[in-house]
Amino acid sequence: MTRIAIFASGSGSNAEKITQHFENNDQIEVSLILTNNPKAYVLERAKNLHVPAVTFNRDELRNTNKVLDILKEHQIDFVVLAGFLLLVPENLVEAYPDRIINIHPALLPKFGGKGMYGDKVHQAVKSAGELETGISIHYVNNKYDEGEIIFQAKCPVTEEDTPETVADKVHQLEYQHYPQVIESVINNSIKNL
């Protein structure tokens, strides 16, 4: 059994879709949800999904082994970032080489990096006059949005689109593709051991 931990900072809609995707899978399960935001709605979703949830702060993530110890305690094999806004520290990247992936709501390398998340990305896409946007799923290293890209999916951006309608299109791509890409990466990782 491959045990996944999902890190999220906000509402957790992707965390919910991923958890539901693996509910009847006898090889892979979402075993833990972690957040740096004690008010994040993802905690409510975790409760409804019957997945244990843990909250930590930025200092505990950056300057202690608390988060790594929690992952080890829950025997986590694979880490998924789903709307997680903090930089993953070196100790986690080293403990989970090529076993931490993230989803970004744009076509990297465009519109990535520190401070580029959520609606800020969609506003930047519209302001730049882009004709398409999408999602990028990538491995995590110790820099924002710079890990090797695993998968991208695109959608058009029309003149009529607002940052909100762009966000809706991107969310649909996330829900459609992220759980399958996670499953594919995990299955290929198992084969390569």
Automatic annotation (TrEMBL):
Residues annotated for (6R)-10-formyltetrahydrofolate binding in this entry: 58, 102
GO MF terms held by the record: phosphoribosylglycinamide formyltransferase activity
Keywords from the named record: Purine biosynthesis, Transferase
Reactions it catalyzes: N(1)-(5-phospho-beta-D-ribosyl)glycinamide + (6R)-10-formyltetrahydrofolate = N(2)-formyl-N(1)-(5-phospho-beta-D-ribosyl)glycinamide + (6S)-5,6,7,8-tetrahydrofolate + H(+)
Record-annotated site: Raises pKa of active site His: 145
Transmembrane intervals: none
List of catalytic residues: 104 (proton donor)
Enzyme Commission (EC) number: 2.1.2.2
Pathway: Purine metabolism; IMP biosynthesis via de novo pathway; N(2)-formyl-N(1)-(5-phospho-D-ribosyl)glycinamide from N(1)-(5-phospho-D-ribosyl)glycinamide (10-formyl THF route): step 1/1
Pfam family, one: Formyl_trans_N
Binding annotation for N(1)-(5-phospho-beta-D-ribosyl)glycinamide: 12-14
Formyl transferase N-terminal domain residues: 3-182
Family listed: Belongs to the GART family.
Chain's role: Catalyzes the transfer of a formyl group from 10-formyltetrahydrofolate to 5-phospho-ribosyl-glycinamide (GAR), producing 5-phospho-ribosyl-N-formylglycinamide (FGAR) and tetrahydrofolate.
Protein name: Phosphoribosylglycinamide formyltransferase
